[in-house]
Amino acid sequence: MALTATPARAHGSMQSPVSRVLACYQEGPEHPTSPACRAAVAAGGTQAFYDWNGVRLANAGGRSRQLIPDGKLCSAGADEFKGLDLARDDWPATPMSSGRFTFSYKATAPHKGTFALYITKDGYDPGKPLKWSDLEAQPFATATNPPLSGGSYTFTGNVPQRTGRQLIYSIWQRSDSPEAFYTCSDVVFGGGKQSGPAPTASAPSDAQLAAGAAKSSMKDMPGMRPAANAPAPDGSASPVRDQALAETGSSSLTVALGIGGAAAVAVGCGVVLTGARRKAVGRNRS
């Protein structure tokens, strides 16, 4: 009998600059405080924000531009996340300036892959649906297999000169699977035409993420079970211990299940063999 481990599937979202989905989760999916997040909940419901790490395409395979239609970049074309596509100029945003910046990406399951970050062009209008042509053709920052620490990938990049409200779009394309993940992070540079004051975006803490995990539909994912994978008191995330296993498509949980299954098979075989021996002894005595 062949024993196979269930592959661990990667999930995550941009922490810094914080993505729309995480910023609204931080406000509270049931009662968000900003007008944009309230509108997003009204458009698509609360589940999208409990599933903050699931904006993805299972079979992207490097074909994101071909598969995700204009106007649906922030949701990756998924109806559950359609609230993230609302064209507004008041999304909670992160203050930004040009130059070197350290990006942080929260990962609930680590995997090998490449991050590519794109920024909107000069003249971007946040009041219109986001199109691929609104983004620069080439990423301004890329990172392949960046280091993972405290449950987050971190890498640096040089942010181009911009003014006013802009958007940073991330694609995390796995190299061990065709699956890819997407985020929209609203940022505000100094100068230029400002659309008026907007809430400053904040990322949720590990404790806040763990508190909402029970309502996530991503329960089969490492890092989404509060009882087993809640953040440690020092703020580190327990899924990090499974990094090496997750990179090969398994986790300590699936390995443990495999070991348990093997043990059960061994016990069953032992019972069958014992029964066969007893029958043989009985025939010989007769």
Automatic annotation (TrEMBL):
Q: Which InterPro entries has this protein been placed in?
A: Cellulose/chitin-bd_N (IPR004302), GlcNAc_Chitin_IntDeg (IPR051024), Ig_E-set (IPR014756)
- What are the residue boundaries of the Chitin-binding type-4 domain, all occurrences included? 11-187
Question: Which Gene Ontology molecular-function terms are recorded?
Answer: monooxygenase activity
Keywords assigned by UniProt, alphabetized: Membrane, Monooxygenase, Oxidoreductase, Signal, Transmembrane, Transmembrane helix
Keyword Signal tagged: yes
Q: Does the keyword Signal apply?
A: yes
Identify the Pfam families for this entry: LPMO_10
On the tree of life, the source organism's domain of life is Bacteria
Which residues does the annotated region (Disordered) include? Answer: 193-242
Enumerate the transmembrane spans: 253-276
Q: Which PANTHER family does the annotation name? A: CHITIN-BINDING TYPE-4 DOMAIN-CONTAINING PROTEIN, GLCNAC-BINDING PROTEIN A
The protein here is known as Lytic polysaccharide monooxygenase
